[in-house]
Amino acid sequence: MEQTTTRETTVLADDLQSDLTAAMKERDELVVRVLRSAIAAVKEARVAGPEARDLTDDDVRAAVAREAKKREEAATAFADAGRAEQAEQERAEGEVLARYLPTPLTEDEVVAIVERVLAEGGFDSPQAMGPAMKAVQAEVAGRADGKAVAAIVKARLGAR
Length: 160
Prior knowledge:
Number of helices: 7
CATH topology of the largest domain: Hypothetical Protein Yqey, Chain: A, domain1
CATH superfamily of the largest domain: Uncharacterised protein YqeY/AIM41, N-terminal domain
Strand content: under 5%
Structural class: mainly alpha
Shape: globular
Helix content: over 70%
Largest sheet: none
């Protein structure tokens, strides 16, 4: 890894790099390909915007999550097109990336978080959707699909 004058790596970024090295030694082509892609996404996130910046573990996790989401969408597209082999390849790549992401919340856990946040924040009408979503997203922190969370929040606000 190249040396710079600023600390550009995080614990998660270091894990990605060391796992890449181990996969290269083991000649695990799938893991090598996926981790190279993830590391490239992290480097891209570092230089995105007006100037390069140091990333936090959350920033690195977000970059890895974007890569995982791409794999999930591609797997769905391939499966819908009847290309099972490519869909399975994308799913396998997604599984490698999932190792670096927090465990997703179940629907019941999301519902419980939504109900708690709405009660604590006093959100009780559809007009509170924006602030309610902001508060709920802060709680779920990338561990749940945003569309699913929005649907639950919308249903709870509309039902009150």
